[in-house]
Amino acid sequence: MKIAVRYYSRGGATEKVAKAIAREAGERAETTDRGLDKKVDLLFIGSGIYKGHIDSHVKDFVENLDASKVGKAVFFSTAMLGGGKSDEEIGKFLSERGIPMDTRTFHCHGKFLFFHRGHPDKKDLLDAEIFARKIIRK
User: What CA–CA distance (Å, rounded) separates 71 from 43?
Assistant: First the structure.
């Protein structure tokens, strides 16, 4: 199975989760600045959630995706609060490109100012690896 991991992270929390997922997938986590140059069965795509929305860098990445290169997308995120409606938002962007999204998603806290310091922590990162393993192995 061919897998890619792409993410955008302002403060580093989403990057940590992306790297945990990539370790489990045996791949490198790359920022959304790097396009998708090969066809993949699974694309893990991550974003920090800001005011309930995915980052504009992730939106731009999805808008430029070639649907013929992606079998299915899997979304993960970090946020100070909850994921808001980010699952629906990214799902809409992917659907508009003709890319199916797995209904299983991963969310954990990310630090913001004085809130959730230390997150994602070891347990969060282990949970991200377990999540990736379940997706990859079905």
Answer: 8
Type and span of the H or E element at 63: helix 56-63
For 85-95, how does the pLDDT look when each residue is reduced to its tens digit (9 = 90+)? 777 889 999 99
Q: Can you give the pTM of this predicted structure?
A: 0.89
Quick check: 79 and 54 in contact, CB under 8 A? no
CB atoms within 10 A of CB 54: 26
Angle between helices 13-25 and 122-137 (to 10 degrees): 40
Q: What is the pLDDT of residues 45-101, one digit of tens each?
A: 999 888 778 899 999 999 999 999 999 999 999 976 555 677 788 999 999 999 999
With beta carbons less than 8 A apart as the criterion, state whether 99 and 70 touch. Answer: yes
Contact 41, 2 (CB under 8 A): yes
Q: Return the bridge partners of 101, or none.
A: 73
